[in-house]
Amino acid sequence: MTRHFNTETFRGDYTYHNSPEAIRRFPFPFDQDTYTYSVNIAPHPGGPTGSTFEFAFDVDEHYVSEMQDRAITLAEDPNRCQSLPHMELAGWDLLELIMVSKARDYPDLFTLNRDGDQWHWINRPLGIEQRFTFLDPATLPYGPLEYITRQTQGDFALLHERDRNLWLDAGMITSQADWSLDFDVGMNFFEWHAPVPKARQMGVFDKALKFLLAVEQQQAYRRLNWTMTVNPRLDTSPENYHKWGPEKRSITPQNVGQKQFLRVELQTFWRLPRSNALAFPIRCYLCCLEDLCTNPEWARRLHLVLRDIDPVLADYKGFAVNQKTIVEYLAGFSCV
Amino acid sequence: MKKLTLRVAEITALSPLVKRFRLIHPDGAPLPLFSGGAHITVDMPEGDLIRRNSYSLVSNPYDGAGYEIAVRREDRGRGGSLYMHTRVSEGDLLTVSAPKNLFQLDLRARKHVLIAGGIGITPFLSQLHQLDILQQPYELHYAAHSRSEAAGLTLLPDAPHIHLHISEEGSRMDLGAILDGQPLGSHVYTCGPDGLIRAVADQAARLNWPTSAIHSEAFTAPPPGEPFEVTIASTGQHLRVGADQSLLEALEAAHVPVDYSCRGGACGRCETGVSACNGQILHHDHWLSPDEQASQTKIMPCMSRFKGARLELDL
């Protein structure tokens, strides 16, 4: 199979773009015409051939450029990747999970040879070949979490289980929807979700935590979350709000179709074997309104969802300031 | 829940009452690795009934060639361990769950103090492997009534940080001496009888250990008891729970679906609401708080029983 990787940017001139195939497989998150919080969990992986759910860790046309963007973000701010000392073992578990999955699912792109603890990893798209000793961090250029997540799309949180709670004790976070690993590291499940409006009162987090604590080895799950982002920017972090926050004011009726993106997070949950930690990958997919509206059903539904959404959620998801322009744009596709 | 069908490769008597079972994949495929302190749940079909007991893994967690469990024969139990001792032979196939862990090491600890009473040694046997691999400091204290009852003895290395306390020989465990003077940042883990778990927790509290540094695992097989009846609120169905049956097993036999995991009163998965109770719930779990237990509005059907006129479950 030949694969194409886009040459594109997620900052500056923002040349990020989706091919027709990437639009077709975009994980559109709404299954009804209205939006409310739900835990919406399904087993993962598993989905139609070619879908973003087919494999454990989806590799798409944005792979190489996303990894370049992550490297830029890390060079400016190394605190985007942190691992408290007791989480190193979980980092190795995650490295194993990703390498084994990618080598199995994309044999044309990745190869893993293992002879006991002597491992040999080949990543063809990024031109990486590495021999190392599993569980010996001195044999890798970075810690295990940072090493493998510099080669894997999406953000990664590693959660430590103790006292019937989960603690955000390690992560690689460079494509986040306005939250900070440096601020949240070491917090428990309720603490790091404290900014989410309404959900705690609805009991959403109690149920979600109970579910997560029960996730077992050999059975992973997924859910979709979403927000709205102006320009195809991965690094919408609080640390860099001064760079992307003002861009929200650049939306006009003329440019909203190209500049306003629906940002979908494919979140997955994995119980790791040696550490008993939970891995929580958060994969970000971006699609502009113009591309989304090539699918008439998506255009119709997105119009209704964003028109009728609870104002508190429009504010939390950061698009209240542009909601009128967005809804008017989408209304133009909803004549049926 | 993912299930594995494994072959019994070897059965070894570790003591007069304890047998070790080694389980391997029938095709020789590697098994999922696990973390120290993990357990598997074993299906034990007998006629129409499936009993399920959870047993700690005692083998090296980083070795996927096979799983090992150690089972103590309980002649007064409800039959699970007797099944393992009398009905299971080398070469048989057993259906087990994937490994799960409700008693993991807290790898933040500067030092791990492990305290085992009797068959409570089992979760520590896999933890010792993990601590050795991770090169973390620890000491183990293993208390048993007599040497012949100390089934874990043959599986323990002869090392200065492994301490044996045989009460018959007069070397009873002195918890104060063990816990006093441990370095700051130490964590203590206890597995064994309830009395031992309470004694360690009390001693640690007296020495001002933080509660987050005190860990224990008490889950055991469901106890037998007197038969009782329950009513299912949604259908009005009446079920009889036999003397050698847990409430969860009776619900499963009647095809009333209840989620479960550990089957030992520790994980919380089978928590069930009680919509009417005229009598006394005999709580045997470690999940519900004392207040919840006293309110008689919730029950853990994997472990707990009932004595009285009427128990109606919100199912």
UniProtKB/TrEMBL annotation, chain A:
Pfam families: HODM_asu-like. InterPro entries: HODM_asu-like (IPR021848). This is DUF3445 domain-containing protein. It comes from Donghicola mangrovi.
From TrEMBL, chain B:
SUPFAM superfamilies: 2Fe-2S ferredoxin-like, Ferredoxin reductase-like, C-terminal NADP-linked domain, Riboflavin synthase domain-like. It comes from the Bacteria. CDD domains: fer2 (cd00207), PDR_like (cd06185). Residues 1-106 form the FAD-binding FR-type domain. Keywords: 2Fe-2S, Flavoprotein, Iron, Iron-sulfur, Metal-binding, Oxidoreductase. InterPro entries: 2Fe-2S_ferredoxin-like_sf, 2Fe-2S_ferredoxin-type, Beta-grasp_dom_sf, DmmA-like_N, FAD-bd_FR_type, FNR_nucleotide-bd, MRET, Riboflavin_synthase-like_b-brl. One of its GO terms (molecular function) is metal ion binding. It holds the Pfam family Fer2. Residues 228-315 form the 2Fe-2S ferredoxin-type domain. This is Oxidoreductase. The lineage of its organism: Bacteria, Pseudomonadati, Pseudomonadota, Alphaproteobacteria, Rhodobacterales.
